[in-house]
Prior knowledge:
The complex is a heterotrimer of chains A (729), B (425) and C (148). Chain A has 27 helices and 27 strands. By secondary structure, chain A is of the alpha/beta class. In chain A, strands 5-4-17-16-15-6-7 form a 7-stranded mixed beta sheet. Chain A has a 6-stranded mixed barrel with strand order 22-26-23-25-24-27. In chain A, 59% of the residues are buried. Helix content of chain C is 20%, strand content 23%. Chain C has a single domain, classed as Alpha-Beta Plaits. Chain C has 148 residues and is of the alpha+beta class. Chains in contact: A-B, A-C, B-C.
Amino acid sequence: MTREEQLLKAKIPGPETGIEIRRTMCDICAPGAHCGVNAYVKDGRLLKVEGTPGYPGSNGKLCTKGAANRQYIYRKDRILSPMVRTGPKGSDAFRTATWEEALGLIAENLKKIKAESDPDSIVWYTGYSKWYRPWLKRLCHSFGGHNYMTESSTCYKSGWMANNLTFGRDMRPDMMGRPRLLVGWGSNPYINAYLAGRGFAASKDKGVKIIIIDVRRTQASEKLADLYLRPRIGTDGVLAHAMAKIILDNNWQDQEFLDTYVLGVEEYRRMVAQYDLETAQRITGVPKEDIFRAAQMIAETKPCSVSTNTGITHHKNGLNTCRAIMALNILIGNVDQPGGIAPVYDTFLEMGAGFDTREEEFIFETRTPERLPLVGQKRFPLWYDMNHDGQAMDLTRQILSEDPYPIRALAAFGMNTRMFPQTSQLLKALEKLDFMFATDLFWTDACRYADVVLPACSSFERGEVKAYPGGFIAYTQQAIDRVGDCRSDVEIIAELAKLLDTGDELLMQGYDACVRYIFAGNEEELDEARRTGTPVRSKHFKPTPPGSYLAKGIETPSGKLELYSTRIAAIDPAAGLDPLPVWFDGDNACDKTEYPFTLMAGARLPHAIHSRCHDVPWLRSLRPEPMVDIHPEDAADLHISQGDPVTVSTTAAALHLKANLTLSANRGDLHMFHGYAEANANELVPNTENDPYSGFPSFKQIRCRIQRDETSPQTSADREEEGGKLHEL
Amino acid sequence: MKKTAIIGFGCAGYHALRAMRENGYEGEIHVYADVSHPPANPMLTTYYVAGRIPYEGMFPFGSLADLVREYPATLHMDTAVSRLDTSNRRVILSDKTKEDYDQILIATGARAVSPALGKGGGNRRFVMRTAQDAQRLKKLLDEDNVSSAVVVGASMVGIKVVELLYDRGISVILTDLAPRMFPLACMEETAQEIRLDLERRGIVTMLGSGVDKVEEYEQGIFTYLTDGRVLESDLLVLCMGTRANVELVANTHIIRKEPVKVNRGIVADTHMQTTIPGIYAAGDCCEGLNIQTGTTALIGLWANAAEQGRVAGINLADGSAAYDGSLPSNITHYFDVDFVGVGDPDIPGQRHVFHNSTGTYALTEQEGRISCINLLGSYRSSGMLRQALMKIIAGKDPEFGPDRWGLLLASGVPEEFLKLMGGLL
Amino acid sequence: MSYKITFDETKCVACGACAIACMDQNDILVEEGQFPLRRTFTRESRLHPEEKFGYYSHACEHCDEAPCIPACPSGCLFKDPETGFTVFDTTNCIGCRSCAFACPHGAPAMGLDGKMLKCDGCNQRVKAGMLPACVAVCPFDALALVEE
């Protein structure tokens, strides 16, 4: 090989190879990270990715998924041009179309349905990625609609609601304030948010104590925890209440703080009084010594921060569990204190960056008064009260039942149908629609049910503005040639704004004009960030010092931190919602001898997020087959060996997959990752098991059984089989 | 200035020369070789005949000129040494020329033999060891219309010859006196699998029958087997084994009081010194430590020759190095098959065989001690398992920490196999 | 000068980012059956009561006295004098697997062309003053490039 060939093979950037490094960002996961990426590009094609050193947050690092951006972007099933359906719904019978034809068809159908029925018979749904959400929501409003809903109907928002109910704002650990004890409840930051994982690991190196509470043994329980508590699935609320009782019984609470800032202390005290250590140990399975020790550490170590993750909210009692856990922060007076939990002020796209934007105005200024109840409004009144969006978990029911009115059309942006419990019912509902269009990078199940499909592009193929903590504004530019004839979601939205006769001038002007509207006062920063490819700090950046939230006034209805929620108390009592974070058994009702195990769908894998990474061969190679995690002793009882084909069944469905024996699963529990085409874990989750407070499905607590497949060929070849029996020489 | 002779210029000779220069030896080095080409690898001959590497590809250390530039030495090519006067460290050439040295390394290698077979066979009889052997066979295959062949010797060389003939569309019969494939490396169970696989490909195997004599006739060659069968073919390749080239120092006890000890090879200690101080031996001509038996033995492997040459070279350069010993170890890749054998398959014990999607894993175990492993179908774990078995046989902990255990599992090794090897749960 | 890629077990969680970065750098076609040059894995020790999870990342260790080098019958493997990495030129590789057999760490594998392939320490990148791909990406700093 010549030197030039060697350099080219090694992808060394420079004039010799013609390889250029361009700045962009990864948007495979949620906007909490959106790591800076150095894209190695030659002739418009991506050759390699690397983290951008010095980038806010990620600072040169990428996670497992982000490192696979090249194969993700060039996935074999990227949609290359607009498509129009020619065969039955659910099939792959489509023809290519021009953008003009495809967008024309969409506009024609939506305008017709709006005229015939009501704008709210059209649902605007969006999944990943989240970058264009304000634009889509504004389009829905400008078109006269309100039935906008997102995959946040199953993700993040329940915790956000819990915190808003209790604190008046979302809350996060104040890592800058140097907590001395971190309680990660249902948290495996290494895998679900690696930057938080770095933060935890760095804290541990500095001597910070860490308690991990999780039903699964994870990298966090093994590497981080000074104390690890493993409750039974769905009993975290009991554990939190028992700790609260210990703190109150021993008078370890910050009474002055409670007296000054908190509403409902006595009601709360009476509620937790039922959870003595014996009871708690019996229900949770956690040794009472450990419960006591955890409560003591939380009470005695100052400052301390207790935080939760989304997983904890995927239970029928999820929102209350989240409130129960976060209430511990109140008892010890660690709210809005350095190193405790701190309020979050969103700047843009659910990220707090320390300055204000006009995102809210942008989204809501074209909204008209509602005429019809939104999807899920009746069934999940608290959700509606706090979000004023549709709750997508009621979409399947409403389409199929037409109660309270028919849904006729669906605009599906990045819709992952496998995020919906009992997905097959949603697909049945989609079949019933008069019109549906989908935008996506990849040829998904949702695309198969659409009448028109539009190809969207990845973050590398367009520009994007992001705000990062510390006041940073990033504004990327397109780094590589687009794959096929794809367009950015916002280009599509702007085009639709025209064709749908919204008259929304700003939206029609496109992305840059909207961004300048939203980030008014930061024009120079936007220009500089775009020109240099390097995030720029806003001149309006102003950190919020701890204590200022309490001083300024707590944003709950009562102006107090609410252990007793006045907001819930104001909801129609017919909904049966309790203003206190009461615990109840979230198990779905069925024969426990027939379904002796508890299924937890969605336990994170480092190389997957929802369904989008399963078809990236590099990532798939790290765990090639869908597997169900089972405790080795449970497996032994059922004569299941590593890699054996098994069937997992619930009252809703049965799935065939492979067994993975691991101590990560507690006895009696099964864990599965979701989103696989050939083994869709969420199909197992009945579409009726939802948290009445948030509407979130009970992804992480469904009774099930598991058995070895006797009929399938034995692949446990991967261990001893007939030939492996011992015999004398 | 010190003077060193290296007799023979193959793998061991090359590595000795290199190690001497890399370890600061500044004296003269004279290299004697009875060929004109650079150090060759006998293992590459079949690849050359198969057309998978060019002629130069058989000489892995490059040209003589490059070699000498990097590691200076005086080369005496095409120069046969007929005898060593070990007491005087004197090299006697075939033209009776004598040269005295301060130290001598014998690295004369080994040659292919066909014991008890007489001389019959003429131009249709081949062996496969040297570059010349390879050229000769390649010429015949390229120029003549060969349609059938008999290969004698179910050995590592034999199988590669079978493969290259088979790939040329020649029908092949493989015979061996031994009743099983790779008799020096292979257990019966794996040997049977290998044989069945060959038969499935249409290669006829006749194991357990020796060859009595061979005879050339106008159209081909007859091979007479000991069981009475007579095979007729266009050519015959004998891959029956090698013999160490020890003649330079053989029978030294007759004329000297201090003989160079020679068994099947020249016996060397762990410093690769023979029983005569100042006379060293390395490579296929010599017996080094077999860690399984604790005695010295011929273990003719390229990597052994390299290591022995390196150790000898360091000691010749007044350094201090010791040869750790070796174990009969073989890996071969033919068709799409990987076979690995480590240790002596004839040591009795309990046989454990496992199959999985990556292949067959077999081992012999006696009272918890492992004496031999066979792998069929996967090479990924071979180095790790060989290393582990070497440690086990040396009485050491195989050091199956969780990292190693995990890596072996990830490479496809069955958990039960690892447990037997002595790994932790 | 000699470089090594070191691994700190206490920091690794076997997330696989290093393996993916390696695949991206080296264009590994796993979908066609090619082996990755760096592997990560989790090992659970199930000896009661000391159940333990170990997380690992593994590739060629670039041994000082690399046994694969003398084992190669074709002389394909050698040390780069500038970096000390065990590198290769497989022009004459015959696919015999002797390197894999000699390696106590299971590093060499065969590429789709039947020739040896293994980690070269991102030799050209290191020569150009950059980090090996796996080291650059490692989210938890378990891998490092050190100069010995």
